[in-house]
Amino acid sequence: EMQSRYVTSLIKGFIKPLPSQNEMEKSIRKYYESVRKNYCKSARSGIRLSYIPYMDTLSKEIGCYPYPYEIFKKFGFNFWKLIMFGIVTPAQYRLLGRNSWEGAKEAISLYNKYSFKAAARESKGYKSWIYILIILLIVLNRYGGFKKIN
């Protein structure tokens, strides 16, 4: 769907035109080099793609990227937490921008609700807030959130 939205935005002139053929070829070579570094070498390694960065790139181009601050401002803190720490769904790219969808918020909420219920049954009681706290502590430690006391 995101690729279709990109192409229609390109045709309608809502986004900047494609770069020259030389620039596109350079970009493709650069991409294949990064694939070789990040994935094992195989005949199919050139067709691999990381879903979230790809969707983010396209959505930024067409103006529907779900920026965290905009999500917080429009939908509030609880929904912001769901976007930041919940399951990524294509509906996230329908929250803001041109051709946004009124039902996107509800779809994301329901998807996360039922996915987390299933995960909770399988996890035998582990709380997700523990993982969030651990990640927060690691980030704070790495970026100087804890200063040494002399």
From TrEMBL:
The chain crosses the membrane at residues 128-145. The keyword Oxidoreductase applies. The keyword Membrane applies. One of its GO terms (molecular function) is NADP binding. Keywords: FAD, Flavoprotein, Membrane, Oxidoreductase, Transmembrane, Transmembrane helix. This is 11805_t:CDS:1.
